[in-house]
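Researcher: Next sequence.
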Amino acid sequence: MEEWFRTFFDKLYYETYRPREPEERNEEEAKFIAKVLDLPRGSKVLDVGCGYARHAVYLARMGYRVVGVDLSDYLLEIARERIKRFNVEVELVKKDMRKLDYMEEFDGAYMFFTTFGYFTHEENQEVLRRIASALKHRGRLLIDIGNKYQIIHRFVVRGNVESYTWWESGGYIILERRRFDMNEEMITAERIFIKDGALVGRRELMIRLYSYRELKFMLEKAGMKLIEACGDYQSNAFKINSPRLIVVAQKCLC
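Model: Next structure:
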């Protein structure tokens, strides 16, 4: 499963996730990002892990100058087509987020829908450091991840470190086995894709989980101060049983 993210975000990912992401949802989430970052129109914003520019096109339409960074050739090609279709300007860059090399260029940045936690703890910390370097003084970062407390609670209720589910999307049946690794505090998952009765692919992923306190500490270590935490996309305050942990941090001289 080493470097799983290099092959995970491909055609199978897109064709099974895209039907679950209607444009109404994409636009509402983009409005949420704009609202929570609270930056004036015209601000330059970095979309870290932009995928197929799901939110970037709407932010560009709102008047933000967006740069999208991703590692997936497949999703970046879809993003280029999407940008043309929306008739907006979004700069796309193929880059590993661990190797971001911008210096005080952006007013804001965001990592949406569990784009943080792909690597070792040290590498995840490095990602935050590099994003902080990319931000101007007092620039803002939004991170949206699953609530670690809620995720662990689901495994506790089941009384098992493994769970099995199946779902249908895009003409596929997806069988998924999830496991909670207590030593690393991460979720690992294996997905089996079936189409027209035939096995067409397997994919694996791993996401390292972080609590509010852990993420706050990491942001401070990177030179940012956590200034707000929401528990959902309706801007409700973060609670221990919230479905999401959505934090906004500001670059500071701390």
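Model: The first strand starts at residue 44 and ends at 48. The chain has two domains: 5-147+209-251, 150-206.
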